[in-house]
Predict the structure.
Amino acid sequence: MVKITDVARYAGVSPSTVSYALSGKRPISEETRQRVEAAILELGYRPHAGARALASSRSNVLALVVPLRAGIHVPVVMQFAVSVVTTARRYDHDVLLLTQEEGEDGLRRVADTALVDALIVMDVQLHDARLPLLRSLDRPSVMIGFPAGSDGLTCIDLDFKAAGEACVEHLARLGHRVVALVGSPPEVYVRGTAFAQRVVQGFTAAADRSGLSSSVHPCEASPGAARLVAEQLLREQPALTGVVVHNEAILEPLIDAFEQLGLRVPGDLSVTAICPDELAETVRVPVTAVALPSAEVGERAVQLLMKKLGGTAVPEATLLPPRMTERASTAPRDA
């Protein structure tokens, strides 16, 4: 392992000069700094994380707060987490993943120590109990999600309201007049989870604007629940020809259930979704969908946090516009 003394010897300076070049605590000449940097690059020296933290008064660790509550689709959550971790590494930061449902207590426990420099908070509710604490912390934070009142906070997410609207508008353009939203598990709505509520708002608003008959149906994340919802829809809305799905776990089981009940997709029933592209592309009938941009959201959340740590002003709200890709699951009503 290369040591600081090895770098000093190679550059022809003292170990303390190398330390000053790394920490910036004392001025050194540009020529000396270049020699030190060249030695570091040539030898492949990496400063010890503890030494870096002492030099900068930072831990170089970010907290990712993502409570794994009931109804959360873990594979999608992990896509966000992977993006946050890989982007943080580009900025020489590690990530502490906090998955327990501790609310304010968990945030305070981490914030009151020197464990982390900043926080990224997920699974945001419309009326989130953590907001007052986040506003009062002496370290920066970014929320992936938009509460009802986001003043004084930094938030980023897909514009889920616009995503719900885009799905309905696509079906309306194709001539569909009776549509349904098959949504997240019931407990997600009971908690007031922001992204799920925004989808319902967008779906309902777009259906009303277009004069469509519409309904909203929460659905547990299981094939059995998908079958029950399909049966309920056909019983209560026999003229149904368009469905929006916002529940990754039941996308393919729901299509299977409709076809087992005698409806061909897209011949009799057009299906749209809000989900990751890789899921929409690999379903047996590739699904017209608004992409869930987990990689972009995670990356940009870290970038916002790095700017805040560096003292740079950032926008309070970053809403990513929906991007829909048409695939084989939708067709004109008369087709």
In short: Residues 52-56 have pLDDT under 50 and may be disordered. Residues 137 and 318 are 21 Å apart (CA to CA). DSSP finds 14 helices and twelve strands in the chain.
